């Protein structure tokens, strides 16, 4: 099972509801943070769901003039995330670019590692520039080196960025 979430900083639940309109999503929040929980991804609808979450995060970030961090975890085998600042994509990450292209060589391939943007910029964006080195370690780490599931990688990256981890989020 996987999940799709968008974390938003400095906004209220009502502001997010207003932008979402009739779109189906569950919301949870604490003071200053809202999590938008979308229907979990499936292998069959992966491409359509990936095409939905990134634009939604950009829209929410732009219309609410805030930071957004969108995450897609597909079957604990693939972790994608994007960071937006006021609607502009600042960072993108793919833990396993070969996952759908080559199931046999997926993730054990020594030649194709994770694809990531500028880690220092990501750490700065969320106010934790001192954690860039630790973030770089977790973003580039291969499975089995401190974690077995992508949700564990996500939890550590979220902690370093000061965001809630996947275990704190409601199920859909």
TrEMBL record:
Domain of life of the source: Bacteria
Name assigned to this protein: Uncharacterized protein
Species in which this protein is naturally found: Calidithermus roseus
